[in-house]
Specification:
The complex is a heterodimer of chains A (159) and B (259).
Chain A lengths: L1 H28 L10 E8 L10 E4 L2 E12 L4 E9 L10 E6 L6 E6 L12 E2 L1 E3 L4 H20 L1
Chain B lengths: L1 H30 L1 H6 L1 H40 L6 H39 L2 H7 L4 H39 L4 H11 L2 H28 L5 H30 L3
Helix pairs in contact in B: 1-6, 1-8, 3-4, 3-6, 4-6, 4-7, 4-8, 4-9, 6-8, 8-9
The chains are: A alpha/beta (159), B mainly alpha (259).
Chain lengths: 159, 259
């Protein structure tokens, strides 16, 4: 009887340890503890070029993460990318002339959306569109422009 | 010449017959579930020998795998001065791949082989026939609790493996190599998705638990009832489980993470 009891306690302990490990993985390792999906509001923004922005990329304001990119679609009428941003409901006081810009984290890091608040009277609401946007910097384009301007300088010297 | 072809044909038919017997064994095992639930003590005894006894090796391996991952990852990441990504690297490789796969391999070696040897020996010493003589279904009485014990244990063991691996990686990365504590955890929680990474890892380990236990039980039940036959069956369990786990892992990874 005593051995049975020890065995039951050990099995119970094993199940408990397994469940605690699962809980630890869910809460401390994954993004479950910082979910914004439920209590979020969505706004859209149109960009000429989103670069390598991906879904689930972060959305920051003043460097603080306040949401994530939910969907990226292509509008075949205006030839623009339509990006849906899911923003945390706690930060629902963004002016309606907020500026959205695609940044790169570090030199080769991933891309994310940075918001810069404007000075408008009313606030962005669910379904609104951010009017002022700036596209991602594409490295090839920058290098191309740089080479082009260099070439121009050279040709100025000649004549 | 014709004899050679006949041998090949016999070998092929033997493999097919084995697969068929294994497939037929599964519904017979599952049919005993209700009867087992009426006597939960049978399941608890098997959870003890399959789960609790495997816990130590899983815990130790998980910790050391996490520590080694952290050492190697730090060496590579520091060349790009991206040490902050260490937590993501350790956690992603553990939760997605190493946790389920290494746990399943260790499980096949530690628990699967023991299951096969035990059942094979019961068959060789005619204990299974004895049960049948007493009108007790040996599949329901012996195999079903062992099957459920393996099925329940493996996902929990894999979770323990991954969790301890993350902690082991934290100990080496943050404690010994001087990676920032906050960066280790926050980068990890930013990048590891609950559904995409953790749940898929759990699904993997559930599949592996199912397959590993099934192979072990079938090999034991189907073993030639001699001491040599039981030995061969035990070897087959470990070899087949390992191969099936690695093959299935590739397929599951392609389905889950491939785009």
């Amino acid at each position: 009887m005593q051995t049975n009891r020890t065995m039951e306690i050990l099995v119970g302990g094993f199940l408990l340890i397994g469940l605690v490990a699962l809980f630890f993985l869910a809460m401390n390792v994954s993004n479950l503890s910082r979910g914004v999906a439920g209590e979020a509001y969505r706004v859209t923004a149109r960009f000429d070029n989103v670069g390598s922005l991906t879904e689930r990329a972060k959305v920051t304001i003043a460097g603080v993460r306040i949401g994530r990119v939910e969907r990226i679609e292509y509008d075949s009428k205006t030839f623009e990318a339509v990006v849906t941003l899911a923003l945390d409901n706690r930060y629902n006081a963004l002016p309606d002339d907020t500026f959205a810009k695609i940044y790169t984290a570090g030199l080769l890091g991933e891309q994310y959306v940075g918001l810069e608040p404007g000075g408008g009277e009313s606030n962005l609401k669910e379904g609104d569109e951010i009017a002022f946007t700036q596209s991602a910097l594409v490295l090839e384009e920058m290098i191309g422009q740089f080479l082009f301007s260099k070439a121009e300088e050279k040709s100025d010297d000649v004549f | 010449m014709l004899n050679r072809i006949a041998e090949l044909g016999a070998a092929g038919l033997g493999v097919l017959q084995g697969l068929g017997r294994g497939l037929l064994l599964l519904p017979a095992i599952l049919a005993g579930t209700l009867a087992m639930l009426a006597r939960p003590r049978l399941l608890i005894r098997q959870l003890y020998s399959v789960g609790v006894m495997t816990l130590i090796i899983i815990a130790v391996s998980g910790t050391f795998v996490g520590m080694v991952l952290s050492l190697q990852g730090h060496y590579i990441l520091s060349q790009f001065s991206a040490e902050e990504a260490l937590g993501v690297m350790v956690a992603a490789s553990l939760v997605r791949e190493l946790g389920p796969v290494v746990t399943a391999l260790l499980f096949a070696g530690r628990a699967g082989s023991a299951l096969t040897a035990e059942i094979g020996l019961m068959k060789a010493t005619e204990q299974l026939s004895g049960l049948e003589m007493m009108a007790v279904n040996p599949i329901h009485r012996v195999l079903t609790p062992r099957f459920w014990a393996g099925f329940i244990s493996l996902p929990l063991l894999a979770a323990v493996f991954s969790a301890l691996g993350v902690l082991g990686g934290w100990f080496v990365g943050v404690g010994l190599l001087g990676v920032d504590d906050g960066a280790y955890w926050t980068q990890m929680t930013y990048k590891i998705d609950f559904q995409g990474d953790i749940l898929n890892g759990v699904i993997k380990s559930v599949v592996f638990g199912f397959v590993c236990t099934w192979i072990a039980l079938y090999q034991g039940y189907d073993a030639t009832p001699t001491s040599e036959g039981v030995g061969q069956a035990t070897t087959r369990t470990v070899v087949q489980s390992s191969l099936v786990v690695l093959g299935l892992d590739f397929i599951l990874t392609a389905l889950m993470f491939g785009e």
